Amino acid sequence: MRAHARQKLFQRPDKWVVMQSIEIYVGSETTRVLIGPGARSALPDILDTRVRCDRFAIVADATVASLHLPSILAALARRTPAAVLQVPPGEASKTLASAERLYGGLADAKIGRDGLVLALGGGMIGDLAGFVAATWLRGIPFVFCPTTTEAAIDAAIGGKTAINHPAGKNLIGAFHAAAAVVIDSDFLRTLPARDFSAGLAESVKHALIADGAFLDWHEQEAARLLAREADAVTALILRNCGIKADVVARDARERDWRAVLNFGHTVGHALEHVLGFELRHGECVALGIIAENEIARARGWLDAAVCERVRSLLAALGLPTRLPRPVSPGEAWAAARVDKKVRGGAVRCVLLRGLAKPELSVPIERTEMDAAVACLAD
């Protein structure tokens, strides 16, 4: 995969919109990523020239639809969706039952092989709508308009789609890259502070696995990020998309190197499951980063000063550094045992040997996870 960035101009009635444009190549597939305030104005051009779809359906959760659907329909102008399909907000909607209802909606709307799914929402909608697009008629294109920080800087890039199963998170899925990702940073201004901050955990993750200077940038720009200053947010999204694209370039199907993106997620996903999705995904990733750094510190791989620096940064970005309630010894371990990252019966983590020095697929013991999770209660 190759990726490159350039500026692109689009006109909307009130002003010219300047966006960053990235082309991401995975084999013969290309994803165009547009980033910037007002980027939704590019949707007609995307539908007319990028995918040339005959009919399309919009998939959104009810909360996002109430906030952003009118502006999306206005941006689409002459292009009218064949259907607007809504699901309840939250991770509980990422199920086979929800997928089946969406299949019915696509059938009723007569979305054929020349059709398209336009996903509007956060990571849950991207996963669910992307999975439905990947499996409807053996695969139709989709375009993703992320409306959350986490989706904009991580989930929208790379082509992984999935739904949950009672046995665990993201156990049923497919690789299906979006034809285009339209990241309108104005959407992020409507997020509650907690939701905006939750997504920043993925950015800290990217900095820790790939770019120590980007970690410095987070510390310097934390206040401007939390104030959602436009240039800081655009720079945040652009750098994260570049890091994610570089990782996927080396391993599009997650056979080896792409597993580096699981840093913080072995413990994070386990806590997400144990806590019954009480916390946001990004909040659990923040806790997972702290816990997995603690495992690395206990092994002598990572300096305690780095662990404390990361914990302080996560707190400065509005992320939790403590569990909201006690987790019994063994609970997180039991959840991790059924995670899709288990190989050969072993629970595995990405652990750091220093900034931007990740060690992939490291087997860990239950005692290590129990001790790390206990540190989140201190």
Topology readout:
Blueprint: E1 3-12, E2 15-26, E3 29-36, H1 43-51, E4 55-61, H2 62-76, E5 83-87, H3 96-108, E6 115-121, H4 123-135, E7 142-146, H5 149-155, E8 160-165, E9 168-175, E10 180-184, H6 193-210, H7 212-226, H8 230-250, H9 265-274, H10 281-298, H11 304-316, H12 331-336, E11 348-352, E12 358-363, H13 366-375
Parallel strand pairs: 3-10, 4-5, 4-6, 6-7, 7-10
Antiparallel strand pairs: 1-2, 2-3, 8-9, 11-12
Helix pairs in contact: 3-4, 5-6, 5-8, 6-7, 6-8, 6-10, 7-8, 9-10, 10-11, 10-13
Short description:
The chain is of the alpha/beta class and about 375 residues long. It has helices at about 45-50, 60-75, 95-110, 125-135, 150-155, 195-210, 210-225, 230-250, 265-275, 280-300, 305-315, 330-335, 365-375; strands at about 5-10, 15-25, 30-35, 55-60, 85, 115-120, 140-145, 160-165, 170-175, 180-185, 350, 360-365. The model is unreliable at about 1-5 and about 10-15 (pLDDT under 50).
